[in-house]
Structure formats: C-alpha cells, structure tokens
Design brief:
The complex is a heterodimer of chains A (about 450) and B (about 500).
Chain A: H1 6-22, H2 30-34, E1 38-46, E2 52-60, E3 66-70, E4 81-84, E5 89-92, E6 94-99, H3 138-143, E7 147-152, E8 159-167, E9 179-190, H4 192-199, H5 203-222, H6 224-228, H7 239-246, E10 255-259, H8 262-275, E11 279-283, H9 291-297, E12 301-303, H10 322-329, E13 333-335, H11 346-355, H12 360-365, H13 369-374, E14 391-394, E15 405-410, E16 413-414, H14 421-429
Parallel strand pairs in A: 1-4, 1-5, 6-7, 9-10, 10-11, 11-12, 12-13
Antiparallel strand pairs in A: 1-2, 2-3, 5-14, 7-8, 8-9, 14-15, 15-16
Helix pairs in contact in A: 4-5, 5-7
Chain B: H1 7-21, E1 59-67, E2 73-82, E3 85-90, E4 101-104, E5 109-112, E6 114-119, H2 158-164, E7 167-172, E8 180-188, E9 206-210, H3 213-220, H4 229-262, H5 279-288, E10 293-298, H6 301-313, E11 320-323, H7 331-336, E12 340-343, H8 361-367, E13 372-374, H9 385-397, H10 405-410, H11 414-419, E14 437-440, E15 451-456, E16 459-463, H12 480-490
Parallel strand pairs in B: 1-4, 1-5, 6-7, 9-10, 10-11, 11-12, 12-13
Antiparallel strand pairs in B: 1-2, 2-3, 5-14, 7-8, 8-9, 14-15, 15-16
Classes of the chains: A alpha/beta (about 450), B alpha/beta (about 500).
C-alpha cells in the first residue's frame, strides 16, 4: 500500500475540511451521508489538545469528523440528534501502539496466529495487515475498554515487517468490527536480546546485519535499473524487503525499535542518525537512564507502565516510574499494554502510570495523541475540529476501575459495547441452564 | 488445625530428651530411632535451619476505614497490633500502649494482608533465564515426589515487589506441565535465606495437579502419554490407584507394627519390616488423608466435572480449582462440593480452553454460595491483587449483580486463606489473628491506591515512605552509577 507521510496526511485533512465546509466530500460513501449529525452535550471533555472543557458541546459532522467543540454556548446545527451526556467524561478514543489484535485469535493455536513472517531474519516486506481479521472476537471486547485504534505489529526476526493501523469500528457502515486504515504505518526492527538471537547470537551481529542491510537499501534505491537488468552485486535481502525498507529512509516511515537496555537504545539512536531513520523506542525498560538524549531528539518511547521487574538481563533497570521520569524529561511517552487479549486494560495501565508518578494529563496523552503523533496520524487522538470523531463517553475518571465506557464512537458512528462474546456468555449463564440438582458429595 | 512438625525435628527432640533423662524418663518419646525410616505423617515439614527472627512492633492505627473482610467495615476505627497479633479492633479510640507507634490513618484504609493462592515466584523468578527455570519437573507426567519449596529461589526480586503490593502470604506451586506436578509451599513474606525459612508457620503443603491442554501438549509433543485428555485421565487414575494400594500397604505395616508392639515381649526378630518408601505416593496419600490440600489447574467445566468424579472415585477433597475460567457454568456443583475457585479478573483467550472466560466468573461463583478467589499466576499482577479484585467486582456491579466490597475483598484475603488452610491464622482483621495487615493510601479498589505500610506478623516489612534496601542480593550493584557514586565518596 502507498505510504502516506504526515504532511500528505495533514494536507488531506485540510482538503477534507474545506470540502466539508461547502458540500459533502467527494469521497463520502452513501453510508456516511446516511449518518446524521450528532451532538454530545454536557460532559467534561478532555480534548488532549491543552484544554479540559466542562459542560461541553461536541458536534460530530456527517463526515464522521469533529465539526465543533466548545462550551455550553457552542452553536448546534438544526435537526442534529442531541445526546445528553451530562456528568460524564469524554476523551478521544484510546490508542494502543503495540498489539497483536486481529492477527492472533488464540496464541496456542497456530492456525489462528498470523503475526509473524517467514523464518528469515529480514522480513521487511511482511505486512501484518494481510492477516488482519476484522471479525476477531477480541475486537468488540477490546472496545469495552474505550480503545478505538490499535497498532498491529509483526513479531520475530531481526526486521519483523510492517505494522498496521487498525480502527475498531465499522468502515463505512460495513458489518464488521474493525478495519485497517493504514497497512504500512511503521517498520518493526528488533535489537537487544531479540535482535541478537535473530541475527545469530550477539548484539554486534544484529548491528552488522542492519548496517549491511541499509547499505544495500541505499544501493538498491540508487541502482534499481541496474538491479532489474541483473547488473548488481549480491544484496543482503530480497527486492521486496529492500523496497519496503526504502520507505524508512529520509525520516519517512517510522521504525519501531524493540529495545530495552540503555546501551542498546544508544546504539539504535546512533544507527538511526547514520542511516537517516525516524526511530521510536519500544519497550525501553531502561529508557529513563537515557531520558535526556531521547528528549533532545524528541524520540518517542512506547512503555509498558507496570513493568518493574528485571524480566531479562536487558531489563535490569526496569522501574515503575519509567514513564513518569521520561515524561518529566520531555520525552514523548506512549503507553501500551503490549497485549492481545487484554488491550482493554490500556486505561488501567495509564492509571498505574499515574500511580507511579506520571501526571493524569500526560498519561491520557500517552494513550491518545502521543501514539497518533508518533506514528504520523495527525487526524486522530485529540478532540479538535477536523479530527476523526473517535470518542469515548466514560462514567467517570477514565483510569478508575469503577468507571465504565458508556458510549463509543468511531468516525462519528456509535459502536455497540454489549455486542461481544463475553457479554453474551454472561447473559447466557446469568441463570444456570436447567438441569438436575447437583449430586451431593458422599 | 494441627499439622505434624518436622519428623526430623521431633526425632532430634526425642533423642535429646532421651539423652537428658536417661532411659528412665517417665514420658516415652513419641518416636524411637527404629521408626526413623518410616513416616508418621505424610505432611512432614522440613527442618528450618535458618528461622526468621521476628521482631513485631506495637502499632496503633487510628482513624482509618478498617475493611475487616468479615462482613464488617469500621469507619474511623482503631487497630492495635501487638506481639505479632491483632490485639484489638474497635470503633472506639483506643489508648496507645507504652512504646506503641501511633499512626494517623485518617483518610486511609486498612485491610488484611493479601494472599495469593497461585504464584510461581522463586520457581520462575526474574530474570527469566533457563538457569532460573525450576517450576516444571517436566521429565515425567506425574511427579508427586517433588516439592516446589526445593525450587524456590528466595532472592527472586519479585517477592519484595509482591509485598509492596500488600501481599503477606502466597502459595508457590509447580507449573502445569505435569498432571501431578508436585507439592506446593505456602510462604509468608518475611525475607529469608531459604524457602524453608519463609515457610508460613503451620501451613499445610499443597499438591498441584493439572488437566487440559498443558500436560497433553508437553507429553504429546514428545510422542508420549498423555497426548489426549483421555490419556490424562487414564494416567491420573492409574497413579491414584497405585497410591491407594501403597496406602493399604502402609496401613497394613502400621497395624502389624502396632500388634507387634502390643505383645508382652516383642521379639526383635519378628518385627515387621516397613515397606520401602515411595515419596511420590506419600504425597498422594497425604492428599487422600486431607493433610495436603489439592489445587488443580483446570479451565473447562466438563473437565472440572470429570476431576470431581476422579476425586470421588479416589476419595480425596479438592480444595481449589485454579484458573477455572468456566467455573461459572458449574457454580452450583462447586458450591455444593465446597471447592474454591481461584481465578483471574480478566485473563482469557490465549488457549482454546480459555476461550469462554468472562469477567464475572468470580462474582457468579460468589453469588452461588461458592468460594471465589482472585489469584495472580503472575509476578506483575500479584503486585496489584487489589486492582484485580476491584475489576472483577465492578464487572459484576455493572451488570447489576448484588455484591458488597467486603465480598470482593474476601476474594484476595479470607477465601485464599481458607484455600491454603491458614484461615485460622490470617485472612481477616479479627482480634487474635496474626498481624498481617495493610495500610492503604486510598480505597484499595482505586487504581491509584498504594500500600503505605505492610505488616507481616506485626513486623513492618514495607513502608512506602522509606527507600528500602533490596531483599534480593541480585539487585545489588547492577549499575555503573552505583560504582561512580562510590568513587565520588572516595575522592
């Protein structure tokens, strides 16, 4: 799939906005025009754009984007459906930046696991989106946690392949729970213990492989004609791999580097500078030790905020306030569950980041705007005019365990919360099925 | 409940007593040297060479909300800890005994120490490396002769983290690769040099068994038995049958020995010879006799029913099913049979047998009159059992189920204490029980709540205000900046 970089995307948003101002967008499908205008009135809105608005009004346009957001006096279009959400809390839909949602149904049943490419070390052409199942039963369950977007990542190898951005709503009213709206949102590369294993046994071997690979990515880019005419030296990866890695050059498609040890993070940053990559650190158990360097370069770090144990030798410095320390240093922090079945726990993860010292504002940003920004999705992640109306109506503080999601909107369309397998099983067994009294114990 | 102490210890004591008083002692020793090779109890605890020295403090907590896990919540109450016990719990203000540490609990909450029925701390410690991986003796599908205590590395950094989450006692089990995995040990969270030193006083051993996907995967992949669920049941029944026969042989020997001893002049030549010991069978006999509590890893409702039938056939009690994601489907049976259910708030789905997990499992068990428990099976979630219980509580409340906070608190205190056989000692805030107590910064069901202080037997083992030295030697001196700080001091 063609890659949309941030600027092109911004341009498209502006274009869409202009069109919305005059008439229906040329790209609007019949289903979308059928969508009425919705007004959410009365909630406390965390815009994640620097504002918290009490007793707010949000107008969702027919195009599924936010048409207006403001205080109680905000002008409401005639004929719009007004939903009273007084006393509730609204945030942007949550984003989990590192999941296997939709490509793994049951981890221990291989036929349902599609997150990894072939056995090669370099799998840059592997697109995880090819295996994405929008009807995964996990997806409606994930939505109950207020999650509306996930980054679906490939695993394994030295270069795992291309991550996809999936939205957890129906696309154009289609009868499905989710859709991939960018199949190539980032490249995933492993270093540290994982990368060393994939490259044959050491960190040095991993870096050697990556340097040779990127040498050849550049060589291939500059000598495509010769390559096609069979006038090329032997290259370190297949044509498609080199082609796909080319998209990461000149700070194009971001690279998710899975790396934990402080020294490994430094090596990755240096390498990214050498080659001209846009790195995102994933895992980053010891990132707090390198916080100033990360902050200076504005390198985002995707953190699992409850990690505080030395799970591996590359995570000896793991600590619960990693996210808090990074945020304090000015690093763009992204929080993730690193999960498949429990992506719904993202808000609990954020709550625990707050418990460990992160500000509530920073933690909310770290599961909405920050991941969107890190991955070039400027159309998502805040409650601002022109942004996608991915909205969550909460009964209270989104991070608190007593709070529940009451309404969920993806692209302005309300999405069912009860229509999930777990809820249906609960309903089925709320009363036990009729059968004889259980036998007594002798 | 009384449990036999260390056989060796008793024997040593008996011998010593013999030495001190000569052969004319008026109290006959319980054991004689001749009995040494034969076990009196199947639950004999190892001798503890390095007992933990406990120095409990006297503490008066005032003004806190005391969640007792007995059904009662006392707002602005007082709690007095003395001599390692809960001395008084009261709605009134109490006078502080001399030398007592008085703590203002205003705005804070007190609960019993949390208890986890399912942990692999120490047997699968961090860092997760092969050198540390000691939880599954996966060399045969039944290994009742092994004991998790012998695999438990007390330097696991996870123990102290669990304590900081309010956990005061936990059961360390073998993994679930084997149908019969071996003995489990209950620890209390005092730092100790060995698992034996951390053993929870008086706690019976557990026995870990497993059904479902894990054993058949592990052994099926090797072309062995079991490779199917029916294979698992067959191996299980065969092994239990052998235990039953061994038990009979032991009983026969006991009877013959008693007859021989009761003779006027026992003839040494005709003294019955004991059968050769079988440590694995002794574990199973202990389970059949109720001295060892049985914990079974099992997910599916139909399999749990089969295992209940197995327990009926071989006459042993199941104390708790673990994980048990489909327990809600047979909650009436589990309540009737008094089998506890140790489960999670929201883990599900990564195996086919976990496909039907729902967040209301614990609450539905409770509603049916059963004993629900939230366990961790995780070095991470054990640090937040309070949050896990809260999620399971709210999942049920949001569906309109009747349930109190005290009910849900019991899922991580009183009920696990029962499942581990330590409920007379701990698990609730009641006078006379051990001072296993947590003082929380906020309501423990809030995501923001932290354990401010944790007492184990009246010893303040955790205090958030202090920056404690790590228990684990592993965590000492790992970073270069530790060394550079030393250098500065030298300069």
């Amino acid at each position: 799939m063609r890659l949309l970089n941030g600027q092109i995307r911004t341009l498209l948003i502006v274009l869409a906005l202009c069109l919305w101002g005059t008439s229906a967008s040329a790209q609007t499908s019949p289903d979308q025009t059928a969508l009425g205008q919705t007004v959410l009135r009365g909630a406390k809105v965390h815009t994640v754009a620097g504002e918290v608005i009490d007793d707010a009004v949000i107008v969702v346009g027919k195009d599924g984007k936010i048409a207006a957001v403001g205080g109680p006096d905000t002008k409401v279009p005639e004929g719009a459906e007004v939903v009273d959400v007084t006393g509730k809390v609204i945030t942007p839909g949550l984003v989990d930046a590192f999941t296997s949602l939709g490509v793994v149904e049951i981890w221990q049943t291989g036929s349902t696991v599609d997150h990894a490419g072939s056995g090669d070390a370099v799998r840059a052409a592997f697109s995880v989106s090819d295996g994405f199942n929008p009807n995964s039963v996990l997806i409606p369950i994930t939505r109950t946690g207020g999650v509306t977007s996930v980054v679906v990542v490939p695993g394994g190898g030295l270069v795992s392949g291309k991550a996809a951005w999936a939205r957890l709503g129906a696309e154009n009213g289609a009868k499905q729970a989710a859709f991939v709206d960018d199949a190539s949102v980032a490249m995933v590369v492993n270093h540290g213990e994982r990368g060393a294993r994939a490259a044959g046994g050491s960190r040095g071997a991993a870096m050697e492989s990556l340097r040779e690979l990127y040498d050849d990515v550049v060589f291939y880019r500059d000598n495509k004609e010769g390559y096609d005419q069979n006038r090329s030296r032997k290259l370190a990866a297949s044509r498609l791999d080199l082609e796909n890695l080319g998209a990461t050059l000149e700070q194009g498609m971001p690279v998710l580097f899975r790396v934990n040890r402080a020294s490994d993070i430094r090596v990755v940053l240096k390498f990214a500078d050498e080659v001209g990559l846009k790195p995102i650190i994933v895992g980053g158990a010891e990132a707090w030790q390198v916080a100033d360097e990360l902050a200076e370069r504005k390198v985002p770090v995707v953190v699992e905020p409850t990690l505080n144990l030395p799970e591996r030798f590359e995570k000896l410095g793991a600590r619960a306030d990693n996210a808090a320390l990074l945020a304090e240093a000015g690093v763009p922090v992204v929080l993730s569950t690193f999960s498949t079945h429990n992506v719904r726990k993202l808000r609990q993860a954020a709550g625990n980041a707050v418990r460990a010292g992160m500000s509530h504002t920073d933690a909310l940003e770290a599961i909405t705007a920050a991941p969107a920004r890190a991955l070039g999705r400027d159309d998502i992640g805040t409650v601002e005019v022109g942004k996608a109306a991915d909205l969550v109506v909460w009964s209270g503080d989104p991070f608190e365990l007593s709070t529940r999601v009451e309404r969920l909107y993806v692209d302005g369309a309300e999405t069912s919360l009860d229509n999930n397998r777990q809820h249906k099983l609960f309903e089925r067994y709320r009363e036990l099925p009729r059968r004889g009294e259980p036998a007594e114990r002798d | 409940m009384q449990y036999p102490k260390s056989l060796l210890f008793l024997l040593a004591a008996a011998l010593l007593a013999g030495c001190a008083t000569g052969s004319a002692g008026d109290k006959a020793p319980e054991f004689t040297a001749e009995d040494i090779d034969w076990p009196e109890g199947m639950n004999a605890q190892p001798r503890d060479l390095t007992p933990v020295e406990v120095e409990p403090e006297t503490v008066l907590i005032e003004g806190a909300t005391i969640m007792t896990a007995t059904g009662e919540v006392i707002e602005g109450g007082s709690l007095l800890l003395e001599d390692g016990k809960i001395a008084r719990v009261s709605e009134e203000k109490l006078d502080a005994p001399e030398g007592a540490k008085v703590i203002d609990g205003t705005g804070r909450f007190v609960t019993p120490g949390l208890i986890d029925t399912h942990s692999h701390l120490g047997v699968y410690p961090t860092p997760y490396v092969k050198a540390h991986s000691d939880g599954n003796e996966a060399s045969a599908p039944t290994t009742p002769q092994v004991d998790a205590a012998h695999s438990t590395w007390p330097q696991d950094p996870g123990f102290q983290k669990a304590l900081a989450g309010g956990v005061t006692a936990l059961q360390i089990l073998p993994g679930s690769a084997n149908i019969i995995g071996g003995r489990a040990v209950t620890l209390e969270l005092h730092p100790g040099i060995s698992a034996q030193a951390m053993h929870f006083d008086g706690a019976p051993d557990g026995l870990k068994m497993a059904c479902g996907e894990n054993p058949k995967r592990v052994y099926g992949d090797r072309g062995g038995m079991p490779s199917t669920r029916m294979g698992t049941m067959a191996v299980w029944r065969q092994t239990l049958q052998k235990a039953r026969e061994t038990r009979r042989a032991y009983e026969k020997y006991r009877e013959a020995l008693a007859r021989w001893k009761s003779a006027k002049e026992p003839d040494p030549k005709s003294k019955p010879q004991p059968p050769s010991r079988d440590l694995g069978m002794e574990t199973l006999i202990g389970a059949m006799e109720g001295d060892i509590l049985v914990h079974i890893h099992c997910y599916r409702a139909d399999e749990m029913i089969q295992v209940l039938e197995l327990a009926d056939e071989f006459d042993f009690e199941i104390r708790s099913f673990h994980h048990a994601l489909e327990a809600y489907k047979i909650r009436d049976v589990l309540a009737e049979w008094n089998v506890a259910v140790s489960t999670w708030a929201d883990w599900w789905g990564y195996k086919v047998e976990m496909h039907d997990g729902i967040p209301q499992n614990a609450a539905l068990i409770h509603a049916a009159g059963g004993r629900a428990i939230i366990h961790s099976d995780s070095p991470n979630d054990i640090q937040r059992l309070n949050q896990e219980a809260a999620k399971a509580y709210w999942a049920a409340k949001h569906e309109g189920m009747e349930l109190s906070e005290d009910d849900a608190l019991r899922w991580i205190t009183a009920n696990p204490a029962w499942a581990l056989g330590i409920d007379e000692a701990t698990g609730t805030i009641e006078a006379g029980k051990r001072a296993d107590v947590v003082l929380w910064s906020k309501h423990p069901f809030s995501v923001y709540a932290e354990a401010d202080m944790v007492w184990v037997e009246g010893v303040r083992e955790y205090d958030r205000a202090e920056d404690p030295a790590p228990w684990s030697d592993f965590e000492v001196g790992q970073f270069a900046d530790d060394a550079s700080a030393d250098d500065e001091e030298v300069q």
